[in-house]
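Cross-posted from the bioinformatics board.
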Amino acid sequence: MNALEISGLEKVYKGGFKALKGIDFSVKEGDFFALLGPNGAGKSTTIGVISSLVNKTAGSVKVFGYDLDTQLMELKRQIGLVPQEFNFNQFETVRQIVVNQAGYYGVPRELAHQRAEKYLTQLGLWEKRDEPARSLSGGMKRRLMIARALLHEPRLLILDEPTAGVDIELRRSMWDYLTRLNKEGITIILTTHYLEEAEMLCRNIGIIDAGQIIENTSMKRLLATLSQETFILDVEASDKQPSLEGFATRWTDEHTVEVDVDKNAGLNGVFEQLSAHGIKVLSMRNKANRLEELFVNLVEKGRQQGTGGAA
Amino acid sequence: MNQSTSLIALKTIWIKECTRFLRIWVQTLVPPAITMTLYFVIFGSIVGERIGQMSGVTYMEFIVPGLIMMSVITNSYSNVASSFFSAKFQRNIEEMLVSPVSTPVIIAGYIGGGMARAMIVAVIVTAVSFFFVDNVHLEHPLYVVLTVILTSTLFSLGGLANAVFAKTFDDISIVPTFVLTPLTYLGGVFYSVSLLPDFWQGVSMANPILYMVNGFRYGFLGQADVPIGVAMAVLIGFNIAFFVLVYRLLSKGVGIRS
């Protein structure tokens, strides 16, 4: 069963700006799906329509088979939303925020308090339960929004840039938590600007640009299309700065060399040639995240072909 | 959403609303007590003694129902207007919009909050009046209760409509300043409209607040400038009209959905 089915979705804002130009994609139940796109591509509008914060102009949206137009209340019950901006009452306490949210979904107050303890504990916020939300740090506020979205135990969790502005340690703990939720059966849709995050967490991916889906495939299949990667090698200082046969080579200084490697060529040739010149490799890393390269290429390609529509 | 889950949602909104105005009680409950005390001292005790009787009772007794009603009107209106607009401003209104709470439940929850604050303030102002009036009449308690419920409901709905359209905090103070206060002062709080020339009596009849003040006064004193049946009909009519207006605004997502 599909957790989400979108077809022909269009959104024209007042003033005529066409944010969505007929997008189609679906997300399978249990999936961890990344919805990527540059700023202003239509990601948040899409999420806004799914969660009924934005009125669509045309098209259809179904969540676990419930239609947005005819079964709105059932559809809403399936979704937990973690928006991009903090949207809770800053003067309410952490516990009030999550318990009230459960109440809006009809969760009895006693059960809501039990779930509040469970999710606030899991997200490391139980100690802060009686603090007003405005006193929390940015990372805590993000976790509060995740806890709030889980209180009615949704089947589909939508996170709009949940790790924006969060330090790396906390980001990794949130990744672990989201992976755990997904393993427990919750379908997750994630938008993010950290492509490493999408690559690490998500099985399937949709790329949206200028209101159109320009790619919708599995992460594995997408990464398999990457034909070339650039590696940065840190080497021991050497007077020699040879060009490596069969590889585009760029020395940025006496310690650092960038090498373009075709997917099928392998790295052995690079190491063999450097060894032959007596150059010792100390460490090596990708110049860019693999998904990042693909993402940039796809968006550029879409725009050149005019499908992206951006000027 | 079935009946029991709707009731849970309604209770949640109501508790949230009551918690809000009780948390800031210094801003919400104390000012009416102070303002009304000043009205009682100045208009009732100092000026009132020189005025003598009005409509067959002392001036102080005459103004008590009007002043309670004035508090009910301003508090129910401002409670809902400021709470709903703050929720829009901080975007926490989205908490309700993404959840399966129906529009009537949202409206009822906010009205419940406005009514609760209006009732508490009405009790406070009534208690204050005991310091100035020896004998507070209560001729028709049913009409006192009915009028206060219908009036607080109506102005809660009015505050909600105002908040839906408001884009800035200034927008939620314009109506109370330029509409509600003049209409309340000209609605017979401090005088009987029978004292006015015929023309101005006719004009006053177009003021809906006149019917609320007089409905309430009828409940206290057993007499009013307008028939009680007309006062009740006007109140019910305005309540229905404002409910339909607010329901349509929220259903369409005016001011809250893009």
